[in-house]
Design goal:
By secondary structure, the protein is of the alpha+beta class. The model has no long low-confidence stretch (mean pLDDT 94). The chain binds adenosine-5'-diphosphate and magnesium ion. Adenosine-5'-diphosphate binds next to α1, β4 and β5.
């Protein structure tokens, strides 16, 4: 892009896209941003790339792409128990399409303002559609949640419902047909506009022994939490939380398979030592915070799904870009 067009584009769509924050000494416009993290807090950094055709359909609504590019990073910070604050946006576009940019900036900006995130800089280049967002935040010194703190016997919890986004993507791709329009709309929205569990993540500090966000499929992501903690996980099939919309769409059996292996839900999966479960439930009432127990950390290396007392077999345990 010529420098004038690029300058105008940045100025028009991105110089006032997110929240205004007092701790941004210098935002979009200089060679780098100047930020003032709170004293006594650890800086938390995450970055995620969305590639057209890989992470979203190339013709997806620009508002959804803008929303998701930030949401996936918000979810990573939520899993750390951190508070998001500043974002950087690297945008690669085939052409400076104003309608597309407007939609993208609206989707990104609305979610950024909802979480008090300032867009403080980025990069704009020409090429195949690709969006990278870096998100910075903070957490009180040494109190971040990690994947690695779980112990055998800890209870395993999950927020919200899972499998909806995977069904939403199947609908979007025409690989699933549904007569129930209301259910279809709900499932599509879960893929297009995921709601990261930022407030829950922050509140889990001091309660959860380990935490991960579910982006690649519950079974695979829970297994990652287990592996990082040096133990395994056991998930009870009948306890998997699935939405009424997903049940109506595909039935109980397929819903729970999607819940285990589908991706893009951005819920939080976390462990709590048995002695602290009561305290968790008192501090964070389930009805208000929407989570439930789905299993237990176990003294073994693998992730298993049980139904009644029997271990079930699964061929696919999550999305992996490099598996054939
Ligand atoms: P430089 O060449 O010094 O890297 P750029 O011309 O790339 O500067 O960017 C000018 C300013 O605009 C910088 O402050 C940069 O952070 C910001 N910027 C560029 N692209 C974006 C974008 N897509 N979103 C937000 N800020 C951007
Ligand atoms: Mg640059």
């Amino acid at each position: 892009m010529t420098s004038l067009t690029e300058f105008a584009l940045i100025e028009r769509y991105f110089s006032h896209c997110g929240a205004e924050r007092r701790d941004v000494e210098l935002g979009v416009g200089d060679d780098a941003a100047l930020l003032r993290p709170p004293v006594g807090e650890d800086l938390v950094a995450a970055i995620d790339t969305l590639v057209a055709g890989v992470h979203f359909p190339p013709d997806a609504a620009p508002g959804s792409i803008g929303h998701r590019a930030l949401a996936v990073n918000l979810s990573d910070l939520a899993a750390m128990g951190a508070r998001p604050a500043w974002a950087l946006l690297a945008l690669t576009l085939p052409k400076p399409d104003e309608l597309w940019l407007e939609g993208f900036a609206l989707g990104f900006g609305a979610l950024a303002r909802a979480h008090d995130v300032a867009l403080v800089g980025g990069d704009t280049t020409k090429g195949p559609l690709c969006i990278t967002v870096q998100l910075l935040g903070h957490v009180p010194h040494s109190s971040a949640l990690r994947r690695s703190g779980a112990r055998p016997g800890d209870a395993l919890f999950l927020s919200g419902t899972v499998g909806d986004a995977a069904a939403g993507l199947l609908l979007e791709q025409g690989r699933l047909a549904l007569e129930d329009m209301a259910a279809a709309k709900e499932l599509r929205a879960r893929f297009a506009f995921p709601i990261p569990r930022v407030a829950l993540g922050e509140r889990l500090r001091g309660h959860a022994s380990a935490c991960i966000d579910v982006s690649d499929g519950l079974l695979g992501d829970a297994a990652k939490l287990g592996a990082a903690s040096g133990c395994g996980v056991q998930i009870e099939f009948e306890e998997l939380p699935v939405s009424p919309a997903l049940l109506r769409a595909v039935g109980a059996e397929r819903a729970r398979h999607l819940a285990l292996t589908g991706g893009d839900d951005y819920e939080l999966c976390f462990s709590v030592p048995p002695a602290r479960v009561e305290e968790l439930e008192r501090a964070l009432p389930r009805e208000r915070w929407d989570y439930r127990r789905i299993g237990t950390l176990r003294d073994a290396a693998d992730a298993v799904v049980t139904r009644g007392g029997t271990v079930m077999q699964f061929s696919h345990s999550g999305f992996d870009h490099f598996s054939s």
